[in-house]
Amino acid sequence: MENTSFFVGFLVMWVLTETNKLTLQQNLLLTYLSSERLVPRINSLCHKEWQDVRSKQTSNKLFEVKPIIGNTTCPGHLGQRENTIINRLRIGHTRVTCRHLLSGDTPPLCDECNCVLTIKHILLECSAFNDIRKKYFPCSPLSNFFESTDLLRVVSFMKQINL
Ligand SMILES: [Zn+2]
Questions:
Q1: Residue 120 belongs to what domain range?
Q2: Which of 9, 34, 123, 142 could share a disulfide with 38, CB 3.0–4.6 Å?
Q3: Are 145 and 124 in contact (CB under 8 A)?
């Protein structure tokens, strides 16, 4: 109920502004009040709506990586290139795993396991990389992999396996 009256107020303000029924001073005052009160509320409501949509998409690969929506911080000790690698691994988009989307080919298969090649498979599952993986990081669920693993070691792992 509170949300409804909030949006009705916002809608009335917008209509008054668009139809030039407000003076410049009134408009500036409303703009000031809007930024103070409305923007945080709108952000909060959008965040809740986004989380609700995400929570229903359990088969989405991004849900597995980040089930709770929020800020993702870039570790300060990584350079720009390493941050780019980590971000691409997070969203599962790399040249190796997504090339088929542009070319129209079938998804690439793992040479060792004969399953679809995904970032999750490469980082956590593929037996071909078990020995190398153990050298760099322990296996953990993908949902907290990027938060619990030394990301420089992940980059080193990817470099060693030439992907
Ligand atoms: Zn494999």
A1: 80-160
A2: 34
A3: yes
Distance 136 CA to ligand 1 centre (A): 17
67 in a structural domain: no
3-class DSSP assignment, residue 116:
strand
Is 52's pLDDT higher than 90? yes
Report if residue 87 sits inside a domain: yes
Question: Into how many domains does the chain fold?
Answer: 2
* Burial call 92-126: b when 16+ CB within 10 Å, e when fewer: bebeebbeeeeeeeeeeebeeeeeebbbbbbbbbb
What is the pTM (predicted TM-score) of this model?
0.67
Ligand 1 geometric centre to CA of 157 (Å): 15
102-150 tens-digit pLDDT: 899 999 999 999 999 999 999 999 999 999 999 999 888 888 898 889 9
Tell whether 136 and 99 lie within a shared domain. yes
